Amino acid sequence: MSFTASIDLDSLIARALAEDVASGDVTTLATIPADRQATATFLVKDDGVLAGCRVAERVFDAVDPALAVAWAAHDGDRVVAGTRAGEVTGAARAILTAERLALNLMQRMSGIATATRQMVDAARTTNPTVEILDTRKTAPGLRLLDKEAVRLGGGTNHRVGLYDMVLIKDNHIEAAGGLAEALRAAHAYLHAQALDLEVEVEVRTLDEVDALVALIDGGLRVDRALLDNLVVRHDDGSFDTTRLAKAVQRRAGSTHTEASGNVTLDSVAQIAATGVTHISSGALTHSVRALDVSLKVGLR
Fold first, then answer.
1. Among the listed residues 92, 62, 58, 89, the one whose alpha carbon sits nearest the alpha carbon of residue 75
2. Same-domain pairing of 184 and 241
3. CA distance 178 to 124
4. What is the pLDDT of residues 224-247, one digit of tens each?
5. Is 45 a catalytic residue?
6. Contact 239, 233 (CB under 8 A)
7. How many domains does the chain have?
8. Which residues constitute the domain of residue 99?
9. Three-state secondary structure call for residue 199
C-alpha cells in the first residue's frame, strides 16, 4: 500500500510552502507578468529510478489548481539521463513558485528509490528472495515519503515508528536486566494490552544468538532475529561474513533473520549469500544522494 494514501500530504505541503514562500515569491512577482503562461519540462539528468511524481503534482495543485501536469514517466520507472519525465502547464508565476519544493521532494525520493533499487539488484544476485529493508533513520517529517521511495525502488518497509512493532535492541535488553527479562516482559505487555505485533530481537554475538535460540526453543515467540554488526569490515575494504553465516545457520528455517551493520552496495551481495531473509540499511534514507531532476520553463 502506498504511504502517500495515509500521509497528510496537504498539511506537509502547506508547511513546506509556508517555509519557502512565506509572504510571497518576490522575484517572480517582480519579474513575471501575471498573465504569462508557460510550459515547464521535467528533465532527468542521472540514470536511476523516478519517485515523487504524485507528490510533486500535489505541490503544483496546492499553489495553483489550474496548473496541468502530464507525465511521460511514472513513479517506480527506471529512467536514464536525458529523460523528459513530464510537463506542467499554466501560469508561469505559479510554476516558478512551486518549482523548488516539487523538485526537492522528487530529487530526494528518486535518490532513495535509486539507491534501494541498486541494493536490491545486488543482493538478489546471490539470494533471489532476500528483502531489503529501510529503517527509522529518515528525515523528520518526511518519513512516510522516504519509506514510499524505498518501496518504489523495490525495497520492503520496516516498521513505520515505535508503535507498530516490538523491536528489542541492546539498550532495551540492558535496561530490562537481560535478554530473557526483556523478551518475557514484552510478551506480557502485548498480552495485557491485547496487541498483536511482531517481535524482533537484536543480537550482536554468537553467544547472544545461542541465548535467543534457547528462549525460542523454550516457547517464547520471536518473529525475527536482528543480527547486528556480525559483518566485519577489514582495513583493505573487504568484508568477512563468517560470523553472520554461522548465526543464520543456527536459526535457519525457524526464525526470520535480519542483517544490519556494514551494509553497503559493495557488501550486500556477500551478506545476502549467507541466507539471511532480510537486510536493513539506514544509508538508504540517512545518506541520500539526490537524483538530479530539473524543471526547464518555456513560454507557450
1. 58
2. yes
3. 36
4. 999 999 999 999 999 999 999 999
5. no
6. yes
7. 2
8. 3-116+288-299
9. strand
Please confirm, yes or no, whether 246 is among the known catalytic residues: no
Residue with cell 539528468: 45
CATH number of the domain that residue 52 is part of: 3.90.1170.20
CA dist 16 and 52 (Å) reads: 15
> Does one domain contain both 241 and 173?
yes
Pick the catalytic residue from 169, 184, 233, 250. Answer: 169
Are 208 and 246 within one domain? yes
Each residue's pLDDT tens digit, 265-297: 999 999 999 999 999 999 999 999 999 999 999
The cell numbers describing 269, all together, are 551481495
Q: Is 261 in the same domain as 293? A: no
Instruction: Judge if 91 and 182 occupy the same domain.
Output: no
Question: Is-catalytic flag, 169?
Answer: yes
Q: Which is the catalytic residue, given 25, 202, 208, 258? A: 202
Q: Determine the Cα–Cα distance for residues 151 and 143; give it in Å rounded to an integer.
A: 12
From the list 36, 45, 54, 100, the catalytic residue is: 100
Question: pTM here?
Answer: 0.94
